[in-house]
Every structure is written in structure tokens, then in C-alpha cells.
């Protein structure tokens, strides 16, 4: 699942001070379950301000990002797949870091192996060689990592150009943009990073078009987007808590307890 819409603004030098705010917020999440949607709680005390930012984000999306994404969707499928694979491969090092921070060794090994194989055998990631070998891609981020550590969600924050987040995920998002596993000592790497970021934004927005088109048919698109994102993030945290790829809790049919 791609990052929710409006997540296209690069702010690699954003203030890390937001990371100090992650401990605040609401009640912690109930135990993880992969058998269905995970329960979540919402706290939106700044809803009027959030709605104002949402209206701005919606305008930017309507007049810029969504039209670009629709044009991208008209490109040949192999072109879109190449962009998707390249952007996903470039993000694997951050996935690997968060897998380690979550204590998910098997997932970390999968991410590292995918990055090595796809970068070398897959022409810098344009071809998902690892997927053809049975190593399915997964995603991990700092917001998910904080959730695995049982840091509370916190109140809802609508970030300019970045969309709806709870405080924990907003902190993780800013931290994720500031952390660069490749370093800043290579103009080539910086160029590839910018290309991969742009590709990920457009490709992710295009993938979300059917969902956002549907959400906007609902009576209140702010509430629809907020609740959809909150459910998606709750499911992501539950996925991280399960640990190994494909693992199911004992409460699920055919599942087994975590070791």
C-alpha cells in the first residue's frame, strides 16, 4: 500500500525536534491481529485547523498532483512498473533500518537481500528480480516502528502537503525524511534520490487514485480520508508487531503464537 496522498513534499532538512513529541497522545493500541481490521482510536482536538490545512492540500492535489498521476497512469504498464520497482528498491535501506529497530530479523534479511539482488541483477532496481525469486516486498517506516514500541498515537495532525497523520506518525514521517542511509557525499546518489522520490510520489498517487476518487464521493471527504488513513496505519503497526513475513497470531485460523 503506498503512502497516503499529498505525501510528495521533500523536506530532508526538517527539524528533528518533532521526534520529542511522539510520547504524547491517546491510549495505546490493543494487541495486534492479522485476521481483520485492527481497532484504533482517534483524537482530533484541532479539527477546525486540520480542515483548513486539508482544504489547502486538496487544492494542491486537485490542480497539480492528481492530474500528473492520471497522466502517468496512461503510460505503458511496463514503464509504470519500472518506475515503481526503481522507487521501491531505493527505499529498501530505510525499510531495512526500521525492520532492525523493530526487532524483525527475518524481515530485515528479506529487505537487505531484495536490495542487493534488485540493485545488481535487476538493473538498479528497475526489475524486481527478488519478487520473481519469492522474496515479497514489504514496507516499514519510523511511524510503524514507534507503534511497534507501543508509543501512543497522539492527536491527529493535518500536515501541509503531507496529509493526515497522528502525532506519532507525523514524527516518524519527519524523521524518515531527515534520515538518509546513503549519506550526502555523492552528487550521483543525491540525483538518484531525487529521481526515486519523484517517482515514488507520482507512482504512489496514481495507485491511490481509485481509493481517493471513492473517498471523495462520501459526504465528508475530510473525515473519510482521516479515518481511512488511521485504519491503514493501525493495520501497518499490527503487521510490524507480528514480526516474520506472513506470520499470523494464534487467534487466527491456522496461526501460531509469536515465539
Question: What are its keywords?
Answer:
single chain; 259 residues; mainly alpha; two-stranded antiparallel ribbon; 2 strands; 3% strand; disordered C terminus
Q: What would you say this structure looks like, in words?
A:
54% of the residues lie in helices and 3% in strands. A two-stranded antiparallel sheet has the order 1-2. With 259 residues, it is mainly α. It has helices at residues 47-73, 77-90, 92-101, 105-120, 129-132, 142-148, 167-178, 187-215, 221-242, and strands spanning 156-159, 163-166. Mean pLDDT is 82; it is low at 5-34 and 253-259. The longest helix has 29 residues, at 187-215. It has a domain at 43-89 and 137-242.
The number of helical runs is 9
User: What does the main sheet amount to?
Assistant: 2 strands, antiparallel
Q: Helix proportion of residues, in percent?
A: 40-55%
Shape: globular
Oligomer: single chain
